[in-house]
Predict the structure.
Amino acid sequence: MACRLPLAMPLAFSSSQQLVLPVTEGIDLLPAYLRDEQRVVASLLDPLHLVALGPGHYRYRVTKVQVFQLQIQPIVELQTHHRGDRLELEAVDCQLEGLGLVDDFQLGLTSWLQPSDQGLEGEATLAVTVSQPPLLKLVPPRVLEATGRSVLSGILLGMRNRVRLQLLKDFQQWRLNKGHGGQAES
């Protein structure tokens, strides 16, 4: 009886980050700020790597990531949606530069921000499914998946830190430019 190796299963890993961002001044203006979606997206992501493709549609070059000996750079197309006061951002397409040997790479990103009684709250989930690259065939899948989760967590943590620093600063600047004495223009 011949022994058959199982077919390679794709690697799958994901990570999530939640955000609670206290806002002390102008909390009532947060819904209007979130409707200025292009400005908010530019504050959430590095504007040097962001290209607006049309209303609510963007292309974003994620910072290069080093995984073992491979250096990869995801290029993600993003779509925004408004659901009431909630701004949602999701990846609708993704390509990889630097990992030409993998045809079945899939990246999922869903995130949202919405006003709360304390300020802004939100969540981002990043997930990847990919076959094991030939260059990494000797690395056990569990090690690759753990490394993948760690990389995704690092990307989300970087995004979360940027949101904490940049989004609040941008909101305050928007509020001062938009509001006269704290009142939003109609």
The two ends are 77 Å apart (CA to CA). The chain has three helices and eight strands.
